User: What shape does this take?
Amino acid sequence: MKIAFFSTKPYDKEFFEKYNQTNELAFYEVSLNESSAKLAEGFDAICIFVNDKINVSIIEKLAQAGIKLIALRSAGFNNVDLDAAKKANITVVRVPAYSPHAVAEHAVALIMTLNRKTHKAYNRVREGNFSLEKLIGFDLFQKTVGIIGTGKIGEAFARIMLGFGCKVVAYDISQNQILIDLGIKYCSFDEVLQQADIISLHCPLTDKTLHLIDKQAIAKMKNGIMLINTSRGALIDTPAVVEALKTKKLGYLGLDVYEQEANIFFNDLSEEILVDDTLARLMSFPNVLITSHQGFLTEEALTQISVITFNNITAFEQRKKSGNEVLI
Ligand code: NAD
Assistant: This one.
């Protein structure tokens, strides 16, 4: 099949070319938007990533261009208007699981860095400053970790935190028996907020989870709590979180995702003026750590993303089901 890739970075090209067998590939650095949609003309399928926002109007343009398949090289699919795709007879496939460990381990990296301040210690020592002032952390052992969403990534994360000797409490709309067997306690959403010293978000972004962490939710949390979001930016009402950081209600914030990350994350803007004041404010706090959506970025995950995406495309071409169709 002829496949047009949007929002591609050198590592996408490297891994997709490595695992391609029979398809004809074109890699565009530009994200898929109203004007770049015409680049899809002459292709059978497009392959997109998390910040390619596919609305009704773009779906219409893709349908006119002859696109029959949208292959998401991500697990999340909140960025695609599925109703519009269905009406246009365009199939949507995704990579539901590639390496839950990649994201779970990144969440742990955020916790460890925020807690033990290794990012600050690294810079200090390189500058000949061997002082330990302001580097005090806390033991993770016996702390209570709250997990919102205990699917593949939440489960991998829970296993790691159990290994640290943490008590793990969780909220999900459906319970994971493996975790219950491991001793994890399911509670209501409010109980997780009230009990946890660290909260990590691992549920998808849906109408129900939009701004799940808002002013009211934050008010129920312990003072000085650590909040980690490696899932989707809009799970958090960012201005409410900024206020909570200012009052010290929130003691630490680790983000791999941000509601307004499109056009910012994945790009080198080091010589540009940052116009997003909320992000600039977040970056100004000493107890906030932001990474630009790199939870998935491991060799193992990139390999799986490429292999599964090609399997999805081949199944579609052969009129078979891959099992990774996004259905509504
Ligand atoms: P999953 O489908 O295996 O698990 C999601 C869990 O969330 C399920 O157990 C589900 O029941 C639960 N859930 C759904 N609605 C909920 C609600 N209203 N309240 C509480 N729980 C709810 O998905 P996964 O593979 O574990 O991925 C989770 C999320 O991680 C994805 O949706 C995606 O947004 C994000 N993600 C981020 C990266 C990254 O690079 N940072 C990479 C992959 C995935």
